């Protein structure tokens, strides 16, 4: 059966408000805002958008507010041919919104309003989209919904990748274990992978035996480490001046899956992913400097002397 979608991304679509202040105010005080910018974001949307920009046919399963389809963000998705038929549209509710405040010491305080994403818990897995796809990526979002989607996708024979990200703390050990059991590729930064190991009391091999054949641990400027079939592959980061690291992880996942789903090796997939994420950190916002496939491929070849 021919599938029309390469990759489904499940989880948040969000608007990111990036705010600069001199200092954080105490309770009952205010502080002037030095700079305020709004960017398109949300971990699942980042993967779908970056993946589409790299040439994947992507589908996005997010819960959004009733007015989202009138927004420029939605128009961008349409222009990229991202399938949004499985959107959960919640009238009268807002699309999830992140507020990230940074002071002059580069300390941060973040607030995240789930808004429409609260509807995930009452929603069923997108069966039609799953039956029309090769792979599914479970990003930040509802643990219950990710569990439903992961289980149905695994039953349907899809490749399943999972990145709990900053929502890791929302998972009880048993639900985390159940999602990972249905996972082929587990993504996380070094803090998250170590926390998963601690929460489940498993070493890397035990984690792989639980479900994922491949564990990808990203380490920022120190590159990434991939565990698979008793192998440990280390890949250097493609270093560029970092203006804003936000979204680098999501773009790495999109880059890795772009090459891996095309039948490339784990090592080449990781190198391509590093090249993709190096573009994202060069500008503010998770999608501002999304590269094309050719741009990322050329940078990968130059850096790794391929």
Structural overview:
With 306 residues, the chain is an alpha/beta fold. Helices cover 34% and strands 25% of the residues. It has an 8-stranded mixed sheet. Strands 3-2-7-8 form a 4-stranded mixed sheet. A hairpin with a 5-residue loop joins strand 7 (97-102) and strand 8 (108-113). Helix 1 (43-53) crosses helix 8 (248-260), helix 4 packs parallel to helix 5 and helix 8 runs antiparallel to helix 9. The radius of gyration is 19 Å and the shape is globular.
Describe the structure concisely for a colleague.
With 306 residues, the chain is of the alpha/beta class. The protein has ten helices and 14 strands.
Q: State the helix count.
A: 10
Gap between N and C termini, in Å? Answer: 35 Å
Describe the sheet with the most strands.
Answer: 8 strands, mixed
What is the mean pLDDT?
94
Helix content: 25-40%
Structural class by sheet pairing and helices: alpha/beta
State the low-pLDDT regions, or none: none
List its traits.
306 residues; alpha/beta; 4-stranded mixed β-sheet; 14 strands
Topology:
Elements: E1 5-10, E2 14-21, E3 33-41, H1 43-53, E4 58-61, E5 63-65, H2 72-79, E6 88-90, E7 97-102, E8 108-113, H3 127-131, E9 133-138, H4 143-155, E10 159-162, H5 173-181, E11 185-189, H6 190-200, H7 204-210, E12 214-218, E13 224-228, E14 231-235, H8 248-260, H9 266-280, H10 293-304
Parallel strand pairs: 1-4, 1-9, 2-7, 5-6, 9-10, 10-11, 11-12
Antiparallel strand pairs: 2-3, 7-8, 12-13, 13-14
Helix pairs in contact: 1-8, 4-5, 8-9, 9-10
